[in-house]
Design brief:
Elements lengths: L2 H9 L2 H8 L2 E7 L14 H13 L3 E2 L2 H10 L7 E8 L2 H13 L4 E5 L1 H4 L6 H11 L3 E7 L2 E7 L6 H13 L5 H11 L17 H9 L3 E4 L12 H18 L6 E3 L10 H8 L5 E3 L5 E3 L5 H4 L5 E2 L4 H8 L1 H10 L1
Parallel strand pairs: 1-3, 1-11, 2-3, 3-4, 4-7, 8-9
Antiparallel strand pairs: 1-10, 5-6
Helix pairs in contact: 2-15, 7-8, 7-9
Protein backbone atom coordinates (compact mmCIF):
# COMPACT_ATOMS: atom_id res chain seq x y z
CA UNK A 1 0.00 0.00 0.00
CA UNK A 2 1.54 3.32 -1.07
CA UNK A 3 1.07 6.77 0.45
CA UNK A 4 -1.88 7.54 -1.84
CA UNK A 5 -3.69 4.47 -0.57
CA UNK A 6 -2.99 5.55 2.99
CA UNK A 7 -4.56 8.92 2.21
CA UNK A 8 -7.68 7.22 0.78
CA UNK A 9 -7.86 5.08 3.90
CA UNK A 10 -7.82 8.20 6.06
CA UNK A 11 -10.55 9.90 4.02
CA UNK A 12 -13.04 7.00 3.89
CA UNK A 13 -14.77 6.34 7.25
CA UNK A 14 -14.30 2.80 8.51
CA UNK A 15 -17.98 2.72 9.54
CA UNK A 16 -18.97 3.24 5.90
CA UNK A 17 -16.72 0.42 4.71
CA UNK A 18 -18.12 -1.95 7.33
CA UNK A 19 -21.56 -1.62 5.74
CA UNK A 20 -20.01 -3.57 2.86
CA UNK A 21 -17.56 -5.84 4.68
CA UNK A 22 -19.39 -6.45 7.93
CA UNK A 23 -17.58 -6.16 11.28
CA UNK A 24 -14.13 -7.73 11.44
CA UNK A 25 -11.18 -8.12 13.79
CA UNK A 26 -7.57 -8.59 12.63
CA UNK A 27 -5.57 -11.21 14.52
CA UNK A 28 -1.79 -10.83 14.28
CA UNK A 29 0.76 -13.62 14.52
CA UNK A 30 4.43 -13.34 15.50
CA UNK A 31 7.38 -15.71 15.89
CA UNK A 32 10.93 -14.38 16.39
CA UNK A 33 12.20 -10.97 17.48
CA UNK A 34 15.47 -9.51 16.23
CA UNK A 35 18.29 -9.94 18.74
CA UNK A 36 21.84 -9.41 17.56
CA UNK A 37 23.38 -10.94 20.69
CA UNK A 38 21.63 -14.24 19.94
CA UNK A 39 21.98 -13.97 16.14
CA UNK A 40 18.20 -13.99 15.80
CA UNK A 41 16.65 -12.55 12.66
CA UNK A 42 13.12 -11.50 13.42
CA UNK A 43 10.78 -8.57 13.75
CA UNK A 44 12.73 -5.33 14.10
CA UNK A 45 11.98 -3.94 17.55
CA UNK A 46 12.16 -0.26 16.59
CA UNK A 47 9.69 -0.79 13.74
CA UNK A 48 7.43 -2.88 15.97
CA UNK A 49 7.43 -0.18 18.61
CA UNK A 50 6.36 2.32 15.93
CA UNK A 51 3.41 0.08 15.05
CA UNK A 52 2.37 -0.22 18.69
CA UNK A 53 2.66 3.55 19.17
CA UNK A 54 0.33 4.06 16.21
CA UNK A 55 -2.06 1.42 17.54
CA UNK A 56 -2.43 3.14 20.89
CA UNK A 57 -2.44 6.75 19.67
CA UNK A 58 -5.12 5.91 17.10
CA UNK A 59 -7.51 4.64 19.75
CA UNK A 60 -7.34 0.91 19.05
CA UNK A 61 -8.09 -1.60 21.78
CA UNK A 62 -6.29 -4.93 22.17
CA UNK A 63 -8.09 -8.01 23.50
CA UNK A 64 -7.03 -11.62 23.95
CA UNK A 65 -7.98 -14.33 21.49
CA UNK A 66 -10.01 -15.93 24.28
CA UNK A 67 -12.03 -12.72 24.68
CA UNK A 68 -12.59 -12.50 20.94
CA UNK A 69 -13.80 -16.10 20.77
CA UNK A 70 -16.16 -15.58 23.71
CA UNK A 71 -17.61 -12.48 22.05
CA UNK A 72 -18.18 -14.39 18.79
CA UNK A 73 -19.84 -17.33 20.56
CA UNK A 74 -22.08 -15.14 22.70
CA UNK A 75 -22.76 -12.56 19.98
CA UNK A 76 -21.42 -9.82 22.21
CA UNK A 77 -20.55 -6.50 20.58
CA UNK A 78 -16.91 -5.60 20.08
CA UNK A 79 -15.23 -2.20 19.73
CA UNK A 80 -14.90 -1.03 16.14
CA UNK A 81 -11.17 -0.45 16.51
CA UNK A 82 -9.90 -3.67 18.03
CA UNK A 83 -7.24 -6.30 17.32
CA UNK A 84 -5.70 -9.48 18.75
CA UNK A 85 -1.98 -10.30 18.99
CA UNK A 86 -0.57 -13.83 19.20
CA UNK A 87 2.85 -15.53 19.32
CA UNK A 88 3.69 -19.11 18.31
CA UNK A 89 6.20 -21.69 19.62
CA UNK A 90 7.75 -20.50 22.90
CA UNK A 91 11.26 -19.17 22.16
CA UNK A 92 13.13 -17.26 24.85
CA UNK A 93 13.08 -13.97 22.88
CA UNK A 94 9.29 -14.18 22.89
CA UNK A 95 9.48 -14.07 26.68
CA UNK A 96 12.16 -11.50 27.42
CA UNK A 97 11.67 -9.18 24.44
CA UNK A 98 8.03 -9.40 23.36
CA UNK A 99 6.43 -9.91 26.77
CA UNK A 100 7.67 -6.69 28.41
CA UNK A 101 7.30 -4.67 25.19
CA UNK A 102 3.62 -5.49 24.68
CA UNK A 103 2.93 -5.15 28.41
CA UNK A 104 4.35 -1.63 28.19
CA UNK A 105 1.57 -0.78 25.74
CA UNK A 106 -1.04 -2.70 27.77
CA UNK A 107 -1.51 -5.17 24.91
CA UNK A 108 -2.22 -8.79 25.91
CA UNK A 109 -0.47 -11.50 23.92
CA UNK A 110 -1.69 -15.05 23.50
CA UNK A 111 1.32 -17.40 23.52
CA UNK A 112 0.97 -20.80 21.83
CA UNK A 113 3.59 -23.16 23.28
CA UNK A 114 5.04 -26.34 21.77
CA UNK A 115 4.98 -28.33 24.98
CA UNK A 116 7.79 -30.81 24.23
CA UNK A 117 9.92 -27.80 23.28
CA UNK A 118 9.29 -26.07 26.61
CA UNK A 119 10.08 -29.41 28.29
CA UNK A 120 13.34 -29.52 26.26
CA UNK A 121 12.51 -32.91 24.75
CA UNK A 122 13.05 -31.47 21.25
CA UNK A 123 13.36 -28.25 19.31
CA UNK A 124 11.19 -27.46 16.28
CA UNK A 125 12.01 -29.51 13.20
CA UNK A 126 11.82 -26.52 10.84
CA UNK A 127 14.39 -24.64 12.93
CA UNK A 128 16.61 -27.69 12.82
CA UNK A 129 16.46 -27.54 9.01
CA UNK A 130 17.60 -23.93 9.22
CA UNK A 131 20.43 -24.96 11.54
CA UNK A 132 21.53 -27.74 9.18
CA UNK A 133 21.64 -25.44 6.17
CA UNK A 134 23.56 -22.80 8.13
CA UNK A 135 26.25 -25.34 9.04
CA UNK A 136 26.53 -27.48 5.90
CA UNK A 137 28.95 -26.93 3.04
CA UNK A 138 28.02 -26.04 -0.52
CA UNK A 139 27.34 -29.09 -2.64
CA UNK A 140 24.80 -31.49 -4.11
CA UNK A 141 22.77 -33.58 -1.66
CA UNK A 142 20.12 -36.26 -2.03
CA UNK A 143 17.42 -36.84 0.57
CA UNK A 144 15.45 -40.09 0.58
CA UNK A 145 12.16 -39.75 2.42
CA UNK A 146 9.19 -42.09 2.30
CA UNK A 147 10.81 -43.97 -0.61
CA UNK A 148 11.23 -40.83 -2.70
CA UNK A 149 14.47 -39.09 -3.68
CA UNK A 150 14.87 -35.33 -3.49
CA UNK A 151 17.92 -33.52 -4.85
CA UNK A 152 19.05 -30.40 -2.99
CA UNK A 153 21.66 -28.03 -4.40
CA UNK A 154 23.32 -25.84 -1.76
CA UNK A 155 25.28 -22.89 -3.10
CA UNK A 156 28.28 -21.17 -1.60
CA UNK A 157 26.36 -17.97 -0.82
CA UNK A 158 25.09 -17.28 2.70
CA UNK A 159 21.44 -16.98 1.62
CA UNK A 160 20.07 -20.51 1.75
CA UNK A 161 16.44 -19.56 2.22
CA UNK A 162 15.31 -21.26 -1.05
CA UNK A 163 16.82 -24.56 0.08
CA UNK A 164 15.20 -24.18 3.48
CA UNK A 165 11.78 -23.63 1.91
CA UNK A 166 12.26 -26.62 -0.39
CA UNK A 167 13.21 -29.01 2.42
CA UNK A 168 10.49 -27.66 4.71
CA UNK A 169 7.88 -28.21 2.00
CA UNK A 170 9.18 -31.72 1.35
CA UNK A 171 8.84 -32.59 5.03
CA UNK A 172 5.35 -31.10 5.10
CA UNK A 173 4.35 -33.35 2.18
CA UNK A 174 5.44 -36.73 3.60
CA UNK A 175 4.07 -38.69 6.58
CA UNK A 176 5.17 -37.01 9.81
CA UNK A 177 5.03 -39.93 12.25
CA UNK A 178 8.82 -40.38 12.17
CA UNK A 179 9.68 -36.76 11.38
CA UNK A 180 12.22 -36.32 14.16
CA UNK A 181 13.87 -39.63 13.27
CA UNK A 182 14.05 -38.43 9.67
CA UNK A 183 15.90 -35.35 10.92
CA UNK A 184 18.75 -37.56 12.11
CA UNK A 185 19.16 -38.83 8.54
CA UNK A 186 19.07 -35.26 7.20
CA UNK A 187 21.88 -34.24 9.56
CA UNK A 188 23.88 -37.21 8.27
CA UNK A 189 23.19 -36.45 4.60
CA UNK A 190 24.33 -32.84 5.02
CA UNK A 191 27.35 -33.83 7.13
CA UNK A 192 26.27 -31.74 10.10
CA UNK A 193 26.73 -32.95 13.68
CA UNK A 194 23.58 -33.08 15.77
CA UNK A 195 23.92 -30.54 18.62
CA UNK A 196 24.24 -32.08 22.07
CA UNK A 197 21.75 -29.50 23.38
CA UNK A 198 19.44 -26.90 21.94
CA UNK A 199 21.59 -24.06 20.54
CA UNK A 200 21.18 -20.73 22.31
CA UNK A 201 19.68 -19.16 19.17
CA UNK A 202 16.78 -21.63 19.41
CA UNK A 203 16.45 -21.82 23.21
CA UNK A 204 12.92 -22.11 24.61
CA UNK A 205 11.45 -20.22 27.51
CA UNK A 206 10.83 -22.06 30.80
CA UNK A 207 7.47 -22.86 32.35
CA UNK A 208 8.31 -20.31 35.05
CA UNK A 209 8.76 -17.75 32.26
CA UNK A 210 5.29 -18.60 30.98
CA UNK A 211 3.86 -17.98 34.45
CA UNK A 212 5.61 -14.62 34.56
CA UNK A 213 3.95 -13.74 31.25
CA UNK A 214 0.56 -14.38 32.82
CA UNK A 215 1.53 -11.93 35.57
CA UNK A 216 1.98 -9.38 32.75
CA UNK A 217 -1.64 -10.11 31.65
CA UNK A 218 -0.63 -12.30 28.72
CA UNK A 219 -2.26 -15.67 27.96
CA UNK A 220 -0.75 -19.15 27.55
CA UNK A 221 -2.21 -21.87 25.31
CA UNK A 222 -1.16 -25.06 23.51
CA UNK A 223 0.44 -25.51 20.08
CA UNK A 224 0.82 -29.34 19.97
CA UNK A 225 3.57 -31.40 21.58
CA UNK A 226 6.07 -31.54 18.71
CA UNK A 227 4.90 -29.14 15.99
CA UNK A 228 4.47 -31.95 13.47
CA UNK A 229 2.01 -31.37 10.62
CA UNK A 230 -1.33 -32.72 11.85
CA UNK A 231 -2.67 -33.61 8.42
CA UNK A 232 0.42 -35.81 7.86
CA UNK A 233 -0.25 -37.89 10.97
CA UNK A 234 -2.64 -40.76 11.53
CA UNK A 235 -5.90 -39.71 13.17
CA UNK A 236 -4.89 -41.07 16.58
CA UNK A 237 -1.50 -39.34 16.39
CA UNK A 238 -3.06 -36.03 15.42
CA UNK A 239 -5.50 -36.21 18.30
CA UNK A 240 -2.71 -37.16 20.71
CA UNK A 241 -0.58 -34.20 19.58
CA UNK A 242 -3.48 -31.90 20.37
CA UNK A 243 -4.84 -33.45 23.56
CA UNK A 244 -1.50 -34.14 25.25
CA UNK A 245 -0.25 -30.62 24.61
CA UNK A 246 -3.44 -29.14 26.07
CA UNK A 247 -3.11 -31.45 29.06
CA UNK A 248 0.51 -30.44 29.61
CA UNK A 249 -0.27 -26.72 29.46
CA UNK A 250 -3.13 -27.24 31.91
CA UNK A 251 -0.78 -29.11 34.26
CA UNK A 252 1.85 -26.38 34.21
CA UNK A 253 -0.28 -23.24 33.88
CA UNK A 254 -3.06 -22.72 36.37
CA UNK A 255 -5.04 -20.28 34.23
CA UNK A 256 -4.32 -21.48 30.69
CA UNK A 257 -6.32 -20.05 27.81
CA UNK A 258 -8.90 -22.31 26.08
CA UNK A 259 -7.64 -21.67 22.55
CA UNK A 260 -5.21 -23.49 20.23
CA UNK A 261 -3.01 -22.92 17.16
CA UNK A 262 -2.37 -25.41 14.35
CA UNK A 263 1.33 -26.04 13.55
CA UNK A 264 2.41 -24.04 10.47
CA UNK A 265 -1.34 -23.65 9.94
CA UNK A 266 -1.66 -23.20 6.19
CA UNK A 267 -4.36 -24.82 4.08
CA UNK A 268 -3.47 -28.51 3.92
CA UNK A 269 -1.51 -28.48 7.21
CA UNK A 270 -4.78 -29.25 8.97
CA UNK A 271 -7.99 -30.68 7.54
CA UNK A 272 -11.67 -31.00 8.34
CA UNK A 273 -10.64 -33.95 10.51
CA UNK A 274 -8.74 -31.60 12.84
CA UNK A 275 -11.46 -28.94 12.73
CA UNK A 276 -14.10 -31.50 13.73
CA UNK A 277 -11.91 -32.80 16.54
CA UNK A 278 -11.27 -29.30 17.89
CA UNK A 279 -14.98 -28.48 17.67
CA UNK A 280 -15.69 -31.38 20.05
CA UNK A 281 -13.25 -30.18 22.69
CA UNK A 282 -13.96 -27.56 25.33
CA UNK A 283 -11.70 -25.06 23.59
CA UNK A 284 -13.30 -21.87 22.31
CA UNK A 285 -11.28 -21.33 19.14
CA UNK A 286 -8.34 -22.46 17.04
CA UNK A 287 -6.22 -20.26 14.77
CA UNK A 288 -4.54 -21.02 11.47
CA UNK A 289 -1.94 -18.99 9.59
CA UNK A 290 -4.21 -18.42 6.61
CA UNK A 291 -4.16 -14.63 6.07
CA UNK A 292 -7.35 -12.73 6.75
CA UNK A 293 -9.47 -10.89 9.30
CA UNK A 294 -11.90 -12.64 11.63
CA UNK A 295 -15.47 -11.90 10.56
CA UNK A 296 -17.40 -11.36 13.75
CA UNK A 297 -20.81 -12.31 12.34
CA UNK A 298 -19.59 -15.89 11.92
CA UNK A 299 -19.75 -18.14 14.97
CA UNK A 300 -20.17 -21.68 13.65
CA UNK A 301 -17.75 -24.12 15.26
CA UNK A 302 -16.12 -24.93 11.92
CA UNK A 303 -15.23 -21.24 11.55
CA UNK A 304 -14.19 -20.78 15.18
CA UNK A 305 -11.71 -23.62 14.77
CA UNK A 306 -10.07 -22.33 11.61
CA UNK A 307 -9.71 -18.61 12.32
CA UNK A 308 -7.36 -16.62 10.05
CA UNK A 309 -4.36 -14.55 11.15
CA UNK A 310 -2.05 -12.00 9.58
CA UNK A 311 1.70 -12.22 9.97
CA UNK A 312 2.63 -9.19 12.05
CA UNK A 313 4.16 -6.55 9.77
CA UNK A 314 7.21 -4.69 11.00
CA UNK A 315 6.47 -1.65 8.86
CA UNK A 316 3.80 0.85 9.79
CA UNK A 317 2.15 1.18 6.38
CA UNK A 318 1.46 -2.54 6.07
CA UNK A 319 0.33 -2.69 9.69
CA UNK A 320 -2.19 0.08 9.07
CA UNK A 321 -3.40 -1.77 5.99
CA UNK A 322 -4.12 -4.90 8.04
CA UNK A 323 -5.83 -2.91 10.79
CA UNK A 324 -8.01 -0.98 8.40
CA UNK A 325 -10.53 -1.90 5.76
CA UNK A 326 -7.93 -1.91 2.96
CA UNK A 327 -6.73 -5.49 3.44
CA UNK A 328 -10.20 -6.95 3.91
CA UNK A 329 -11.41 -5.22 0.74
CA UNK A 330 -8.48 -6.80 -1.09
CA UNK A 331 -9.47 -10.18 0.32
CA UNK A 332 -13.03 -9.78 -0.92
CA UNK A 333 -11.80 -8.74 -4.36
CA UNK A 334 -9.51 -11.78 -4.52
CA UNK A 335 -12.41 -14.01 -3.45
Amino acid sequence: MNKAAVRVQELVPASLIRLFTGPFVPVFMMHRFACQDRDINGIDIASLRGCLEYFRKSGYEAISLESLASALINRNPLPEKVAVFTIDDGFIDQFDIAGPLFAEYDIPLTYFLITDFIDKKLWPWDDQISYILTHTRAGQYRLTLNGRNFDISVGSDANRRPQYVKIRNILKSVPNSSLYDDLSDIYRVFNVEIPAEIPDKYRPMEWDDARKLIAQDHKIAAHTCSHRILSRLEKSESESEISHSIQRVNEMIESSSPVFAYPTGRSGDFTQREIDYMANTELLATVSTIPGSVLTKKNKKSYLHSLPRYSMPDDLIHFRQCLSWVEIIKEKLRA
